[in-house]
Amino acid sequence: MHPARHPVTLAVSLAAFAASATPARAFQSTGQVVFSIDWQGPTISQPDSGLAVPITEADVLLAPGGAPAYGPLGRPALRLSGGQLGLSRYATCVGHVAGDPCRIELDALSDGAEPLLLPPSPSNHQKRRFWFSVDEYAVGIVGPPPVHAQVATEFLVGDSASDVFMDTGLPAGPLPPGVVAPDNVGAIDGDGVPGTTGFVYPGLGVIEPNPPQLPQQLPNQGDNVDALDVGNWSPFPPLGAFFSLDAGFVDPLTGSPYSGSAVIENKRPGDILRVAAAGSTITTYAGATQLGLDLVSGVASDDLDGLVVHENGVPGFQPSKKPYDWMPSSDAPGTDMVLFSVRRGSAVIGQPDSIFGLPIEPGDILTTPLDTAQGGLSPFPGIFIAAENLGLRTQRGGAMLGDELDALELLGDPWYDCNKNGIDDAVDIANGTSVDANNNGIPDECETKILRFCWCTNEAAPCSNIDNDSGCANSTGVGATLNTGGTSSVGADDLTIGVSNMPNNVNGILFMGDDWNLPTPFKDGARCVYGSIFRYPVQSSGPTGSMTFGPGLAAYSSGWPLGTITAGSTWYFQGWYRNQTGPCGTGTNLSNAVQVDFVP
Predict the structure, then answer these.
(1) Which parts of the chain have pLDDT scores under 50?
(2) pTM for the complete prediction?
């Protein structure tokens, strides 16, 4: 290691390291949040915020500005029109009044590239999170303390139908009822404005509240999020748009028929449809019977309502025959992974699922039927995640009518993760692992200018040298710990960064970068700092096994034209040091890291 005042990659070994792990931001998952609303809400026929085109229930929409944000907000923006999805009646229906079923409703949506669910295994630590929506009649089940936004709280004020919720932590499925305490937490709000419950999170620009009414009065007072996806929708998903259309049978709760958009296109409401490119012809990707639907009362008796698709790249639809056969192997690509829900009133509701033999509910996350040769119990879909685990009520649990899961999405990375622990901020707050005293949806530890992160968890430790409070364990038996002193003021330039718990008398450096990633194994440690990399001069840990950099870090950085620390900039710092006798035998290790938001 040698001092340098120019961008470097921490010598040849760090250059190789940087190539081995692609940096990725985890404040937000990649992709756009897109959605649709049903035909019953007041936003129908209103001009979108982009081109002032009247919004319809066939359109794929974005939050105004392109991403969910805190309100007040304008109307949603049009991402794709129903015409680009190939709906034959779209041009006729543009501008139709809210509450008039013009038979073009988009009922479910996927870009075909959802992350694969991983089978249970000690080595599988990738986190997956289900996002879902419900309609205005879903009551929910009150989750465990601490109190947080969930279906049950938002239903009470009529806000649940316009919101998106997520699970608060599930083990690998299939999951029958009762595996975890019923719970969910708000992920995205309808309008992004604090409601009467006091919770606030980024919104979509739709209208709240949408209180349930029986008998039903149309148009509804508020909007209902009806389809949902997070993916590559700019300009069009590379694998095509996967979706379903609406049934025409009667809703057993309201007594009113659904909009019937499927039959107009000569499709079944239980089919998964596909448009390969904007404006191309609608094709059937997976027929209803391949999903275990339309087997009870015949054609169009079931309606697919929420949808997750991971297309395996092999032409045609290869349905899963048993859980996790979608995982590719060295000699086979795996099946297509399809998860879905069914709408209230579908004939398959109450039939025994093919995994547990339990009555199917409209709040269940389902998968394709198991092959009877594999031990399946019925030709009907299998329950992959029982509704109760998502905090939704069911007739299985004694409710008069089960809650409906209306839209479905699967995320592989957190969408908002300000504390960089790989868990969504809303889940941290809901589970009580983070405090949100001012109730703004942001963990309080993030509302500081200096944030320590990059702990050596089981996922990050290269050779089981775990240390959950610092970097990965070194030859001393513990990990090197990075701490700070002083402030983040550029004018004061009094920030100090110290690294302790290193072996005595070894060389080390402090390096900084303008990007970060979740902990990734490297050498004997875990790396979190990425982007444009700059390093401070080499030091020795001396007889105390520690080194301190600063004050004067900002002044020193002025020699780096692309790395100068300025007010308003954010930089990430991590220590790197020699350890020839370390537990993994690679000769070097790293400390934990720190994010510093610099102020004047």
Answers:
(1) 1-28
(2) 0.83
